Amino acid sequence: MELTEIIGYFGALIVGLVLGLIGGGGSILTVPILVYFLGFSPIVATSYSLFVVGSTSLIGTFRNIRKKTIDFKTAIIFAIPSILAVFMMRSLVIPNLPDVLFSIGKFHLTNSLFIMLVFALIMLLAGWSMIKSKEITTEQEIKEYDSNHYLAIGTQAIGIGALAGLVGAGGGFLIVPALVLLVKLPIKKAISTSLFIIAIQSLIGFLGDLNTIEIDWNFLIRFTIISIIGIFIGLALSKKISAKGLKRGFGYFTLIMAIYITYKELF
What we know:
This protein is mainly alpha-helical and 267 residues long. α3 crosses α9. The chain has helices at 3-22, 30-37, 42-67, 72-93, 111-132, 147-167, 172-181, 187-207, 217-238, 243-266, and strands at 100-104, 107-110. The longest helix is centred in the N-terminal third of the chain and has 26 residues, at 42-67. It has a two-stranded antiparallel sheet. It has one domain. The radius of gyration is 18 Å and the shape is globular. It contains 10 helices and 2 strands; from the N terminus they run ααααββαααααα.
């Protein structure tokens, strides 16, 4: 086993560890690990990331079901348009992307370059969100839905689903604020509900790849199991470590990674 492969599998452990410690963010490490350390193409990496993200989120969802912290009504309202968007992105849009989207002189925007640049942008947004987000300690009352909430939720769900399908990340850093601000869910319930939505949309999005991408199941199962082990370690450590400080630190790390990906892909 080569050093880069060892680092890649160690990265899988870190993905789960971060998810367990701060409840999100770990999924945005999956694609860079698969591309830069394990040598997969961006399209394959985003597909594998959906499976890893979906499986690890599902483990957290089972835990939250036992704690009764998921708002299933909101999850279904959000999940349906999101699932449709991510499935169509993976089954219809990604397979039909041309190898070169456009050229300007000697610069060629390939589909792989486009995916990685969009991914870097998502990492920038995620990192900034983690650094600037304030801890919400007061439980807000759940307000009744109205037509504006339905429209806003559906619109955001479609956008987040399309992004998740393109870059292979669950979009939890976008879903949680939407649930808190639009639906007025308490923050703990929003996080639990977000994890449930991510699990569903990621795994169904992955199903859209089964007919278009050859899956190395032996590798993917190994990587996912290591990530799940990391989640349990993270959950155990989260009781002893300040999540707020970790989230801020990981936010800065994510910003650095986004800049690195942009530089590496363009220069």
